[in-house]
Amino acid sequence: MAPTVPLAVLALVALVAPVASGLGAAPGCDYPAHRWCSSRDIAVACQVESRCRSLPHPAAPPVELSLYYESLCPACREFLVIKLFSTWLLLPEGMLNITLVPYGNAQERNVSGKLDFRCQHGPEECLGNMMEACLMHEAKNFSTYFPVIFCLESGSSVTKNLEAQCLQIYAPEVDSGRIAACVQGDTGVALMHHNAQLTEALDPPHQYVPWITVNGKHTNELQAQAEASLLGLVCHLYQ
């Protein structure tokens, strides 16, 4: 009487046999047939990648969105708070990269060798722009500073709620003293100068704020789609 073969062994043979018989490995493939589809690196080395259906597909590059805005601009605040922040919360990590450039319609002047900024909504907006630029500079991590900026833009005062409310709630690990030193010193001026250069380099030049670029491009159609349904636009563009 023939020896009984365990069912688990028969199942393993059934799984491996089609791979071994149906796939031809590249010459020089040093891996046994049952490992050809165990990882993408091995599948590539054995030139059987297209036949390994179980391999995870590589992640698509994220959609790149840049927002050129002013801290006290009502339309900018509405888009950032209602559309951009909520979309960022809903999407899985890695689908959307956001760049925030607080400057907008400000003007940069050289006064007696020092840079001076004039903003559309007055000195308080210039302060708000610089505070948010310094916050980004000090916090560095987007997921750390974006909730703080959301808090500032959705609150009663962009310039007065940083330390007492927004930073304490959303990013208590960020040193408010370093942000204040940045705003009052040369670093804040340098950051605003950088934002001025980014804004002035836009092609086509910005005509209003908020000004939105998607994957480095701005068109009236993209702007309208982003403002109408940003989540839908990102999901459509993500490959």
Automatic annotation (TrEMBL):
<dbReference type="GO" id="GO:0005764">
    <property type="term" value="C:lysosome"/>
</dbReference>
<comment type="function">
    <text>Lysosomal thiol reductase that can reduce protein disulfide bonds. May facilitate the complete unfolding of proteins destined for lysosomal degradation. Plays an important role in antigen processing. Facilitates the generation of MHC class II-restricted epitodes from disulfide bond-containing antigen by the endocytic reduction of disulfide bonds. Also facilitates MHC class I-restricted recognition of exogenous antigens containing disulfide bonds by CD8+ T-cells or crosspresentation.</text>
</comment>
<dbReference type="GO" id="GO:0005576">
    <property type="term" value="C:extracellular region"/>
</dbReference>
<dbReference type="GO" id="GO:0002376">
    <property type="term" value="P:immune system process"/>
</dbReference>
<dbReference type="Pfam" id="PF03227">
    <property type="entry name" value="GILT"/>
</dbReference>
<comment type="similarity">
    <text>Belongs to the GILT family.</text>
</comment>
<keyword id="KW-0391">Immunity</keyword>
<feature type="signal peptide">
    <location>
        <begin position="1"/>
        <end position="21"/>
    </location>
</feature>
<dbReference type="GO" id="GO:0016671">
    <property type="term" value="F:oxidoreductase activity, acting on a sulfur group of donors, disulfide as acceptor"/>
</dbReference>
<keyword id="KW-1015">Disulfide bond</keyword>
<keyword id="KW-0560">Oxidoreductase</keyword>
<keyword id="KW-0325">Glycoprotein</keyword>
<protein>
    <recommendedName>
        <fullName>Gamma-interferon-inducible lysosomal thiol reductase</fullName>
        <ecNumber>1.8.-.-</ecNumber>
    </recommendedName>
</protein>
<keyword id="KW-0732">Signal</keyword>
<comment type="function">
    <text>Lysosomal thiol reductase that can reduce protein disulfide bonds. Facilitates the complete unfolding of proteins destined for lysosomal degradation. Plays an important role in antigen processing.</text>
</comment>
<comment type="subunit">
    <text>Dimer; disulfide-linked.</text>
</comment>
<keyword id="KW-0458">Lysosome</keyword>
<dbReference type="InterPro" id="IPR004911">
    <property type="entry name" value="Interferon-induced_GILT"/>
</dbReference>
<keyword id="KW-0964">Secreted</keyword>
<keyword id="KW-0676">Redox-active center</keyword>
